[in-house]
UniProtKB/TrEMBL annotation:
Protein known as: Proline--tRNA ligase
GO terms, biological process: prolyl-tRNA aminoacylation
Tree of life domain: Bacteria
Entry's family note: Belongs to the class-II aminoacyl-tRNA synthetase family. ProS type 1 subfamily.
Recorded name of the encoding gene: proS
Domain notes: Consists of three domains: the N-terminal catalytic domain, the editing domain and the C-terminal anticodon-binding domain.
Stretches assigned to the Aminoacyl-transfer RNA synthetases class-II family profile domain: 33-466
Transmembrane as UniProt keyword: no
PANTHER family recorded: MITOCHONDRIAL RIBOSOME PROTEIN L39/PROLYL-TRNA LIGASE FAMILY MEMBER (PTHR42753), PROLINE--TRNA LIGASE (PTHR42753:SF2)
Phylogenetic classification of the source organism: Bacteria, Bacillati, Bacillota, Tissierellia, Tissierellales
Subunit structure: Homodimer.
InterPro entries: aa-tRNA-synt_IIb, aa-tRNA-synth_II, aa-tRNA-synth_II/BPL/LPL, Anticodon-bd, Anticodon-bd_dom_sf, Pro-tRNA-ligase_IIa, Pro-tRNA-synth_IIa_bac-type, Pro-tRNA-Synthase_IIa_type1
Catalytic activities: tRNA(Pro) + L-proline + ATP = L-prolyl-tRNA(Pro) + AMP + diphosphate
GO MF, one example: ATP binding
Amino acid sequence: MRMSKFYIPTLREMPSDAEIASHKLLLRAGMMRKLVSGVYSYLPMGYRVIRKVEQIVREEMDRAGAQELLMSAIQPKEIWEASGRWENFGPEMFRLKDRNSREFCLGPTHEEYFTDLIKDEVKSYKQLPLNLYQIQTKYRDEKRPRFGLMRCREFIMKDAYSFDVDEENMKTSYQIMWEAYDEVFTRLKLKYKVVQGDTGAMGGKISHEFMAMSEAGESLVAYCDNCNYAATDEKADVVYKVNNEIEEELNMERVHTPNVTTIESLVEFFGIDHGRFGKALVYNIGEPIVAIIPGDRELNETKLCNYLGIGEHDLELANEEIILDITGANKGFTGPVGIKKGVKVLVDSRIAKMKNLIVGGNETDYHLKNVNYGRDFTGEVVEDLLLVREGDICPKCGEQLKMERGIEVGNIFQLGTKYSSALDSNFLDENGKEKPFVMGCYGIGVSRSVAAVVEQYHDENGIIWPLVVAPYHVIITVVNTKDESQVNLGEKLYQELGVLGVEVIIDDRNERAGVKFKDRDLIGIPIRITVGKKAGESIVEYSVRGEEDKQEVEVDKLISLIEE
Ligand code: ATP
Ligand code: MG
Ligand code: MG
Ligand code: MG
């Protein structure tokens, strides 16, 4: 391809609304353009990258025995009503009507549709296991589309669905997909962790998320260097050091806490040594254990976020059922805080075991100390209410957990029979008995993975594509297009490399050398050949994007160098 003919509108200026590197660079490098919020076009250079990622995904899915097909993005309401998700999916679902007022959605995901597809057609256990997948455009009317390809309203996903005779076989299918995902993300050169995930809108019990580690990620990953434990902050189990000595039940005490107006001051006042924020607020001090428990529904979200210094996204992570309360640190809040009769309290099962909690005093400037669950208040005990923070204790080995941000690039789910039962999608087992398929589902964010690669591979000058996903392998820069020997040598190399099947692009534009070098850095093609002053002697400069080294190479030796 010739840069002089190529549609690659690079930008000198930083796009003003782009916050993270991948968003800025993919725009600046002329790889994509925004249509409206969360909706992008992939331009020729960018689309080449998308297709390379798709191809890697495709190869690994095929290798794992999954079969590719392509379903419609438009789905009728009826199948979603059968699973109950027409109601439950909420505003993220794009809904539309045809001319006869029949209702449809643009598929945010395809569990119902795949389950419905094989219904009545896959009839016997002999046809199982079956794994079908597609690489297709998905639609989700995200509350806050942002960060370029990271969180779009239209995006490309690979989604696969496995069908098995029973739980055990489904687990085998799940394992096979897990391994295929490891291959995909390794081939994409992503640094990633597999973590226990949230099953969210998909349902089911077990899920794992593949997190590309990056500061730009929207998810928090809690992990342990010592034993490989890793989970999203929503899902991680945390051990609380419950000191036996303080298990005794002390009497509840009312404490005047005039200066306790923030979490920090609360921590200081009570001598808490580390704190955490979760779906409930908990502070763990060894003795006594201090917890801030959920309480008052009237707190308004914005106030709470400001108070805690967290983003509203973090708050969204909290289950709606859970009433967040910043008990006791109660200045500035008018509603009742702390434990109060008649207020519904959800209590994490671990808190329910603790004695000597500190909670709000239902009065400005007062806290209650030595509060016991069960004696002083009761509530609904819930598992896994708490989120995790840096320094919490690993449930597996007792070491301290670390926290890092990650980008969810893939997610696998053990669904069980949720969809097959709901949609009457059954097969006949060995004994001729009708049974619902036992399913798994497996997603990879194809377009989001491109953003994740850029997040992990860039510098201040632009993208540094790993060879496997680079839009082209080699770029030839003709420094001076008025110099005939440079032009001729550049053309010759371009032809020769092309014949060898190397994906090569030549910058033959009549532009200043500086412009071409800047664009070359920005676009991030891995292998660079600069045809300059020494073209007459058949010598060019060879360099690799992201590496300092430059070497002068005789043209004859160039091919073997590139083949390496
Ligand atoms: P998130 O937690 O980021 O909202 P999700 O858990 O809702 O993602 P899944 O339903 O698990 O997403 O979809 C499978 C994959 O599709 C995700 O792991 C992610 O890589 C990708 N994906 C999901 N939503 C988006 C989006 N809005 N834009 C781009 N990719 C997305
Ligand atoms: Mg989502
Ligand atoms: Mg998610
Ligand atoms: Mg997910």
